[in-house]
Amino acid sequence: MDRTAARPFRTRLVRPLLAASIAAALLPLAPPAASAAQSGRTPAVQEQTADACPWGYTSAGTVFFGRDRADSGVPNRELGDGCTIMDAVWAEAPFASHGTFLLTVTRLTASARRDGVISSTEQLRILLAAARSDVGKRQWVTHTRAVSDRRIGLVLYTVRATMPTAPETTLAALVGCGYRNAEPSGAVNNFYGKTAAQLAPLVAGAGLTVPSLGIGLGDLENNLDGVIADARAFGAKYVRISGSGSWGLADYSRVAATLNTVGARLKQAGITVAYHNHGFEFTEQDGVRGYDVLVRETDPRLVAMELDLYWAASVGVDPVQLIQQYPGRFSLFHVKDLAADGSFADVGEGTIDFARIFAYSGVAGVEYYLTENDSPRPDGVSSACDSYANLRALRY
């Protein structure tokens, strides 16, 4: 490696860390626990439990500010009152700048080190991860970037009308308009009336790969061996589930624990479990959204999120704010557009500003952009091909 060429990078990395460390030395140490106002919990909830951060980040994961080098690898330890290091950091979000974020992390980790929660070496690892992250950095739309063909796919729910009776014709038409990836949806041994062993060769024969497979929560809970077998039949690296509008916060917490448990076993098989949202996860219950419980209580090394852009936007949630709040968690996007009247539109023909969202793809950690239209017109294939063409033409 050219040491001269490496100096600018080291300078960019060391300077903010040095500045943050000096500033932290001049600031009073803040208590590690988040206040009721910071955590978003109501006083009533706090009075009912000794945990000052219910529904917060658990100690099962690491101090994590994004993928790869933004993951410190340091255990997300509790600070003594039920709050963890991550709870303390994100209680002070949003961050006006990357420098503000670094100052916050430096101050809080200094407090944790003084309290014996982390060592000096672990503090340095957390600070390095924070410096390498994009938290607090604004991502600009340059109109010079495009989504690669290799990363675009179709959720086959869009063509569900013809998949049971004419799968080969349907799949060939999708390949003809440019698709290289597909996400089948169904249940173990039942994808559009076929088993995985029956459908997988048809998908592969058409020239499509399957990065992600949609299944049910019951499959994960009751037939994990079947899930693994089906994922392997398709060659899928992700399996994703959806939730229920009837869930309470305790249900979200229970599902998060399930995702962690099955995620550990799936990871051994080379598969990552993912959660796909609708709109109901963003409804507040006692000041907390179910979606936040799912993200905070799942281990980012084991569980990914498949962010459905339509459903988030349909209930007034800004995908960019989600990405900034949970960097590195969104391996998959469902790229669906929102018509002015609230209905579904082909990608690029509705109201969602995809360029602004895609500018944060690196922060999100996106691997695949899967188009979908729940109510395709005039038919599934035509709608899918329109979405593909518009997505390929998009510059962000």
UniProtKB/TrEMBL annotation:
Keyword terms, alphabetized: Isomerase, Signal
Gene Ontology MF terms: isomerase activity
Domain Xylose isomerase-like TIM barrel intervals: 176-368
Gene3D superfamilies: Divalent-metal-dependent TIM barrel enzymes
SUPFAM superfamilies tied to this protein: Xylose isomerase-like (SSF51658)
Region forming the signal peptide: 1-36
Top-rank taxon: Bacteria
Pfam families with a match to the protein in the record: AP_endonuc_2 (PF01261)
Entry protein name: Sugar phosphate isomerase/epimerase
UniProt organism field: Micromonospora musae
Species classification: Bacteria, Bacillati, Actinomycetota, Actinomycetes, Micromonosporales
